[in-house]
Specification:
By secondary structure, the protein is of the alpha/beta class. It is built from six helices and 13 strands. It has a six-stranded mixed beta sheet with strand order 2-1-3-6-12-13, sandwiched between helices. It has a four-stranded antiparallel beta sheet with strand order 8-9-7-10. Strand 4 and strand 5 form a beta hairpin. It is globular, with a radius of gyration of 17 Å. The two termini are 24 Å apart. 46% of the residues are buried. Ribulose-5-phosphate binds next to helix 4. Homodimer. GO terms for molecular function: ribose-5-phosphate isomerase activity.
Amino acid sequence: MNLKQQVGEKAAEYVKEGMVVGLGTGSTAYYMVEALGKRVKEGLTITGVTTSTQTKEQAEKLGIPLKTIDEVETVDLTIDGADEIDANYQGVKGGGGALLFEKIVADYSKKVIWIVDESKMVKTLGAFPLPVEVMPYGSQQLVRIFEGKGFYPTMRKNEDGENYLTDGGHYIIDLHMTKIEDPQSLAEWLDGLTGVMEHGLFLNRVNTIIVGHESGLEIIE
Ligand code: 5RP
């Protein structure tokens, strides 16, 4: 069993009867959703809140009852993947393009678990390009601003070479910064830019991290 599957299945064990569960997006979250689908078939009653069309389609196939984030009071637990986690447990997410919905669901969750294989654990964020979700209108102006800052922005493209469209109908600009020295001030600066809908810096947003190592699972609380 690969590391992504191991952490996905482990995280699914944290889900208890009656919970409202935020279902993350990506190749690691995929295994957690599969494991939950199996438990639902065995009689577990939960309500899922999905963070993307991709996860929604998977959960529906598995028969996991779903509600939207607006139909629930609160989310008991969200389980999601991450692209990078630094030594202070700050994260970059959005490689799969679902960062806006993922951050919304995480913000209304009582508890958040990230599931990653060991390759995602880094000293400093930035080797993975930082996704910034932007309004199409004015997006080239944002590209110019990022170029001016030396952030090496690229517009994310789909397989047809067109601008990638998120579930929210936005574009993604990936920032190739190599190293993010001060994630907090970068997040604050991005938050203040008109047209930026969300960015992939997830700071102080996780309670538990399950890391898959070749030598076994590590649980960071
Ligand atoms: C999607 C995400 C994913 O959680 C992140 O990209 C990790 O994906 P994977 O588990 O496929 O490596 O943030 O927007």
